[in-house]
């Protein structure tokens, strides 16, 4: 997948997320996709049904994304999300993605940071 294809995937992801279109995830993720909510996720979400169960979040948000790298089936995307609502929160993420031949994600790995988590654990203390 080239940068343009990855950018298109991220745009479709954001549209589905914004619309809470869980059925739209079928077009984004492979049936047996793995979704890691952190790089050390001991229990990654396995399969499309597990991803659908986790994915719904009606909190209003804004999102910007930039494709950092796209090399064959692998891509890295820098994402910034600002949630509104009663408890505003922001996240800066790196998404590490692996795509199948049909353009759907087979692996989604999230490296999230937020204002209170400014350093990795090895740099603290």
TrEMBL record:
InterPro entries according to UniProt: NTF2-like_dom_sf (IPR032710), SnoaL-like (IPR037401)
Signal peptide: none
Superkingdom of the source species: Bacteria
Domain SnoaL-like stretches: 10-104
A Pfam family matched in the record: SnoaL_2
Entry-linked Gene3D superfamilies: 3.10.450.50
Protein name from the UniProt record: Ketosteroid isomerase-like protein
Organism from which the protein derives: Cellulomonas humilata
Source lineage: Bacteria, Bacillati, Actinomycetota, Actinomycetes, Micrococcales
């Amino acid at each position: 997948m080239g940068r343009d294809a990855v950018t298109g995937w991220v745009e479709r992801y954001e549209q589905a997320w914004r619309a809470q279109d869980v059925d739209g995830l079928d077009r984004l993720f492979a049936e047996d996709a793995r979704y890691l909510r952190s790089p050390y996720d001991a229990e990654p979400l396995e399969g499309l049904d597990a991803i659908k169960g986790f994915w719904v979040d009606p909190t209003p948000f804004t999102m910007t994304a930039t494709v950092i790298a796209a090399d064959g089936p692998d891509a890295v995307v820098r994402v910034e999300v600002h949630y509104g609502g009663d408890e505003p929160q922001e996240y800066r993420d790196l998404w590490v993605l692996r795509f199948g031949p049909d353009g759907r994600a087979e692996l989604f790995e999230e490296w999230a940071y937020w204002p209170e988590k400014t350093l990795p654990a090895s740099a603290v203390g």
